[in-house]
Amino acid sequence: MLGMISSPVVNGFLSASMRLAIPILLAALGGVYNERSGVLNIGMEGMMIVGSLVGFVAAYFIHDLWFGVLAAAASGVLLGLILGFFVISLSANQVVAGISLNLLCMGVTSLLFRVVFGVGTAAPRVNPFAAVPIPFLGDIPVVGPLFFRQSPLGYITYALVILSFFVIYRTSWGLSIIATGENPEAAETLGVNVVRTRYAALMISGGLCALGGVFLSVDSTGLFIDNMTAGRGYIALALLILGRRHPFGLLAAALMFGAADAVQLRTQILNIRIPFQFMLMLPYILTMVVLAVFVRRIDSPAALGVHYKHGGEKE
Amino acid sequence: MREAGAKPARPLGAERKLKISKGLRADFLSSFIAFALALVIGAAIIAAMGKDPLKAYAALLDGAVGNRNSLAETFLRAIPLSLAGIGVAIAFRAGAFNVGAEGQLFIGAMASAWVGLSFPSLPPILLLPLMGLTAMVAGGLWAGIAGALKAWMNASEMINTIMLNYIAVFLVSFLVHGPLQDPSSPLGQTARLPRAAYLPIMLPGTRLHGGLVLAVAAALLASLFLWRSAWGFRIRVVGKNTFAAQASGMRVNGVMVSALVVSGMLAGLAGFCEAAGVQHRMIENISPGYGYTAIVVALLGQTNPIGVFAAAVLFAALQIGASTMESAVGVPSSVITVIQYLVVLLLIGRGAFDLIRGKVMALSRREKG
Question: Which of A77, A99, A209, A270 is the most buried (most CB within 10 A)?
């Protein structure tokens, strides 16, 4: 039994599941902040693709992957600020603003990539992060390949999951985020600055989404491809529902999606009779199933998606 | 309450009309300003690339409307944009976000091509309507999946329509590489449609086909339905105020699903136009993102079907002119993509003016006090 569950095939599958889970996990983790604070971030897809590009370009020209990661995070924070301006200060429709941001980011990244690298034949590459197995821990069956044979950015992701749990549930600032999302009027009477809290939540969210995006370019592939996020920013929205907007819940939910992705990749290689296009549909179908099955059971923050004006004025 | 009861007694017809047209004018003015501002920002981007923005825009205009053929190409491009855009607008009016026009277009195009290939001996007068109807049914059903999941499971139609886009593209890819592939070609495409399945050409010597009539008819019919039918009234009430709609006994979910289905039908029809009017077969990349641009077109047209048609022609002109601009002045055509999406950000950012005005007024009040 032990021999089977620690065979190279199973080990490879487990570590691939986690590797494929990390981008959506990071984006969804960002979503915890803004959704808990009562603002939707439909712009996650756009923030991810911008993170992919900015991180790739920075890593390519500075020859430092970590610089790329930082640059990507900064770009995401900036996008969070921009989206915040639209949905918090201008009270724009949160869904329309988010979708527009995504479309704009898709166009801008495609344009910038061509402006920076030209329309050449050879795709520019960076040497992506390599996996760093942790001695001993990496050899534990199941848990080892799942958690302890990742790249440095993967370990940072775990740290961010744990950190987010503590920030949201164990600090007073985290409590004011939750209060803002449940009842902004009450939060404000208690001295919480609702507007500032929501801005901060969206900026953190943007930074984490962009980290998810940069994982795709400088960690998974070493390349930038147009639309390489392929809807992961939207899948992350479904993940938030499945994971109940809880950092550890998201970790489990993301692993499920990562596993679906890993199954999909493996069956393509194994040449099973099912056409590969149907395997490619798997993550998207899974998202729809998750939305249909889980959405009603979960309690969303009471003020999620509802615009709030300072002083509780109604529009 | 008494006021509300007294209202119909007063001759309010004229007043009401005036109010609507005023709101309409303000809406279109803000669309116009957003579009103009986006062009100005686009000019700045072009200048930053070291190119002359005026020359670039002149080339753009020339490429879009400079001669008979370019004009035909512009209207040709406007067909799928306006059909899908009107669909998105109807869903918006009902408060539903159909981000899935792209997938519905793919499914509609695929279904109509399949019908065209299955009944090659039918005369055009029968075959073309049959193809169009199949495309509408297929697109409507595809959108209906998201609608049904919304109504019964309360699952976000926005996320589901996006997921259905990816699924549709993969499904079409499977079909045109598999059971429906052209046996004489390694490419992902079906065999050529029979001649009877070609949409007739409207302007001889160009590619402009009869789909333009469908697009114009869709714009007119959609405005008629939205403002002159009970169904349109329900859609607008549900979109404006769900609670009021519910309180007055409307089946909110039913209305929303019907709007989504109609939305998908129009996107499916756009797919039919591309398959039967332009490609004359189904190909795996039949749309370069028409379904996504349709969202912007719907917003720029203020979700008013006639306005959406105008916005579609405008965006079509930008897209057609872009390639001339690229070859003549060397400005990458993707600048146009950026301008298109900037338009929406500027549109939804129009609240900024109110914000600034409010701040200024508050400041002057403080100075007085």
Answer: A209
Q: What's the total number of domains in chain B?
A: 1
Contact of B48 with chain A, judged by CB distance below 8 Å, is answered with no
Q: Is-contact A161 A247, C-beta < 8 A?
A: yes
Inter-chain contact B166–A96, Cβ cutoff 8 Å? Answer: no
Q: Does B337 touch chain A (CB under 8 A)?
A: yes
Could you list the residue range(s) of the whole structural domain that residue B256 is in? 68-319
Residue B56 belongs to a domain: no
Answer whether residue B2 is part of any domain: no
Q: A100, B299: Cβ pair inside 8 Å?
A: yes
pLDDT tens digits, one per residue of B151-207: 888 888 988 999 999 999 999 999 999 899 988 888 889 999 999 999 999 998 899
Which residues are registered as beta bridge partners of B201? Answer: B209
Mean pLDDT rounded to a whole number for chain A: 87
B91 with B255: CB under 8 angstroms? no
pLDDT, tens digit (0-9, with 9 covering 90-100), for A272-309: 777 888 888 988 999 899 888 877 655 678 888 788 77
Query: Which residue among A92, A103, A295 sits closest to B341, beta carbon to beta carbon?
Result: A103
B37 in any annotated domain? no
Question: What is the count of structural domains for chain A?
Answer: 1
Question: Residue B209: phi, psi to the nearest 5?
Answer: -115, 180
Domain assignment present for residue B363? The answer is no
Band of pLDDT at residue A58, cut at 50, 70 and 90: very high
Phi-psi region of B206 (alpha: psi -120 to 50; beta: other; left: phi over 0): beta
CATH of residue B79's domain is 1.10.3470
Q: Is this complex's ipTM strictly greater than 0.95? A: no
